[in-house]
Design a protein that fits this description.
By secondary structure, the protein is an alpha+beta fold. The protein is built from 14 helices and 21 strands. Helix 4 packs parallel to helix 7, helix 6 packs across helix 7 and helix 12 packs parallel to helix 13. The radius of gyration is 23 Å and the shape is globular.
């Protein structure tokens, strides 16, 4: 399934979880249970999520051999500067040190070397080199990367060799959430989480797998140039500035649609029910994508949608609650659908609004098997009857919030089973505005339910296509409203 939902604000959010050690850690843990109440969680997990995992040439589509047919290194071979940073042995060894010291489980040197060899083989194949690279007799010491460059540097640019070797070491982890963020990826991630503005038209876009991966408008952001111009959900963008979007990637589409404020972009759009293509000339503006939006529906139902968990999420959520308190709001729907996650701090803060301070938000398990309880922060609780909407693209921090609500009987979950991403990543800032994203722990719900690769089962199963979220045919939202007004409450 290749549905990719991101915006010009690069809604980079969640995921293909392939980790398998959580069961083992839970079964054989030897650490002590620590109560951590109102603790500040200092590590974010939010990487480039399922959208980039499936579309970006910088990240794996899968960890299987079938992925090796996908051209990963060609852009870098064509343009050596496109990696965006200069790599050397010191850079490589810093990453290797983080992997050995901080990854959630111990990985043998053999596994890391095998991953590196496979990645170098892929690089050589794309570079048209017949020789197959071999790391037989190599060891992961401080001289490793110098030896690789010395042996193969005459055939492939040394910078790209080191880049592929780093990716190979991370491939050896068998974990799609641990990867190198080159400068453009790292800045995009920080831009999203810190909700910075940028020049663009203001739409969320997707490659619609049900329509031959056509570049499709998922949703225009209210008040933006795209919204004012009349773009609508479901519009297929066939051309950008006269160039066809057939087989376009999300990254290329975003690059073409973004630009300085005041510049224009011309779109040719196919709309269902309209015989001829529609033409739009849209003047770009500064776009700021809030993580939270809200409105009152059905007279007395407060609807608040969280697109991600960023630095401003709690403040924006409080604004929504303040707005609802001034209106005749009797019920609350919190929408976590298509939300791939974000900062754990934000997830704890949002969960705490519905829990008493003695309750657990989630449990964290580190590489040594130690388990910590992360408690709710002390604050006034929201007393409105609550429904939380989830779907198969609700991941990680979204699952933390949904799990906290469910296990603490604070509300009712309606929708599809969630994605099942139960791991936590640390971001390590590196030279030249790059970073390493590395899995450092796992989490479970307050009741100890394993999320990884399983997801959360909602109280009320209500299947719906993810691209219908927020549209007229949003049956999950209607079911939530009906449920709330009936005054019934689901069990745990």
């Amino acid at each position: 399934m290749r549905r990719i939902a991101i915006g010009l604000l690069l809604f980079l959010c969640a995921c293909m979880a392939f980790t398998t050690v959580l069961f083992s850690m839970l079964k054989h843990r030897h650490g002590v249970m620590a109560s951590v109440s109102a603790r500040e969680v200092v590590f974010p997990w939010d990487p480039l999520e399922w959208d980039t995992l499936r579309d970006s040439p910088l990240v794996y589509k899968s960890l299987g051999e079938s992925f090796d047919a996908f051209p990963l290194y060609k852009p870098f071979l064509d343009d050596k500067k496109s990696v965006g940073l200069t790599l050397d042995a010191s850079y490589f060894n810093t990453i290797l040190s983080h992997v050995k010291d901080s990854y959630v489980k111990e990985i043998s040197e053999k596994e890391l070397l095998e991953g590196c060899e496979k990645e170098l083989s892929k690089l050589f194949k794309e570079a048209g080199i017949k020789e197959k690279p071999s790391l037989a007799g190599y060891s992961l010491d401080k001289e490793f990367i110098d030896k690789v460059v010395k042996q193969y540097g005459s055939q492939v640019d040394g910078n790209i060799l080191i880049f592929a070797s780093i990716r190979g070491i991370l491939r050896g982890l068998g974990d799609p959430y641990s990867n190198l963020l080159v400068p453009k990826d790292y800045s995009t991630l920080m831009e999203r989480l810190q909700e910075k503005s940028f020049g663009g038209v203001g739409i969320y876009i997707e490659l619609d797998s049900e329509n031959h991966d056509s570049l499709t408008v998922l949703e225009p952001i209210e008040g933006t140039p795209a919204h004012k111009a009349g773009l609508m959900p479901g519009d297929v963008i066939e051309e950008i500035n006269g160039e066809s979007t057939k087989d376009i990637s999300i990254y290329v589409a975003v690059a073409k649609l973004r630009g300085p404020r005041g510049t224009t972009v011309k779109l040719s759009v196919r709309r269902k029910g309209v015989a001829k293509p529609l033409s739009f000339v849209i003047s770009r503006d500064n776009i700021n994508s809030p993580s939270v939006s809200w409105k009152v529906i059905h007279d007395d139902v407060g609807y608040v949608r969280l697109r991600s968990f960023g630095t401003e999420t709690e403040r924006e959520f409080d604004e929504a609650l303040d707005s609802f308190s001034k209106q005749n709001v009797k019920y609350l729907v919190m929408d976590l659908r298509n939300n791939g996650g974000g900062y754990l701090n934000a997830a704890v803060e949002i969960s705490s609004k519905f829990l008493s301070p003695d309750r657990t938000v989630f449990k964290r398990i580190d590489r040594n098997g130690r388990v910590e309880d992360f408690g709710a922060k002390r604050r006034d609780r929201v007393s409105l009857p609550l429904v939380v909407l989830v779907n198969r693209f609700s991941a990680s921090s979204s699952e933390i919030v949904a799990g906290a609500i469910k296990d603490n009987h604070a509300g009712t979950l309606i929708g599809d089973r969630t994605f099942g991403k139960g791991s936590v990543q640390q971001i390590y800032s590196l030279a030249e505005n790059s970073a390493l994203k590395l899995t450092v722990s796992y989490f479970t719900t307050p009741g100890g339910k394993i999320i990884n690769k399983k997801g959360l089962k909602p109280h009320i199963y209500s299947p719906m296509k993810p691209n219908l979220v927020g549209k007229d045919k949003d049956s999950q939202l209607e079911e939530a409203v009906t449920f709330l007004k009936k005054g019934v409450h689901a069990g745990p």
